[in-house]
Amino acid sequence: MYKEENINFKINNEVLRNYVESINSLKEPMNQILEKLNQISKPIQEVSESLNKTMKPVVEVSNVIYKTVEPIKKIDEKLKSINVMSDTVKKLSTKFPNEQSKIFTDTIKQIMYANNGMLSTRMIEPLNINRQYLSVMEKNNDIEKISRGIYLLPNAFEDSYYLFQQKYKKAIFSHMNALYFYGMTEEFPYNYTVTVPQNYHVDTVNEKCNVFYVSDDIYEMGVVEIETPNGNKVRVYDKERCICDIIRSKGRMDYEQVKKTIKQYIQSEEKNIGKLSEYSKKMGISEKVMEMVGGFYY
After folding, report:
1. pLDDT, tens digit, for every residue of 75-128?
2. Domain spans of the chain?
3. What CA–CA distance (Å, rounded) separates 201 from 207?
4. Do 103 and 20 touch, CB atoms closer than 8 A?
5. Rounded to the nearest 5 degrees, what angle is found at the Cα of 217, between the Cα atoms of 273 and 78?
6. Is the pTM of this model over 0.85?
7. Is the dihedral of CA 9, 15, 19, 20 positive or negative?
């Protein structure tokens, strides 16, 4: 999509793609992600230093290596992808110590190329790239700051849904907002409607959109990823979860639109009544859902 201009220090496309997909999909706070990454790199470093200092018996060396590698096998694949990217940048910096500035700015550009022209500061933290490089690139008009911690390439389209979710990682598009993505409502979502965990409290989220708070046991139930018109992936609930949500929260919504949407769902060949029933039971609204949905069967 983007022409990679003035890139001297190129990173393997697969490494970049895996890194972008992984960092975008992880919702934990960055300090937790960095701590997990440390569990991967620290043992290997300790083994390497130990073996360099002394010649140990083969059996002992084998045991040390086994104890080091075995826990790494259990580490999430996403963290492995982030670690590979981090190691790649680190090796470039070691090989070309006088080119660190160019290496970091090239890395930032390549991440943005692989991420539809966008970048959040969260995407460079595991790579130990200081945010000052973003400021320098902004001053040179290489990138544009459009929100706190969010940057765009000059020729990139601003994707409001994607940018919102990059800023509020825990927010999942839900209710009529999600159904709009599926073409199941006539209402255009002028305001975002999202669902967050009940212990998630960020005042700016409440200022920007309609927020629904749910317990942790149903928060991620029915979560899927879909592409926005600009080709970026965002997290939304599937159709069955949305139907449960609008029935559960019909007091806060346009009731006529709720009925139209349910009728459209029932008439759709893609409906999954089994899944709808399962969700409604877990949400404790089985009778309400089945009663309302049953009313549209002919």
Report:
1. 578 888 999 999 999 999 999 999 999 999 999 999 999 998 999 999 999 999
2. 13-158, 162-294
3. 12
4. no
5. 95
6. no
7. positive
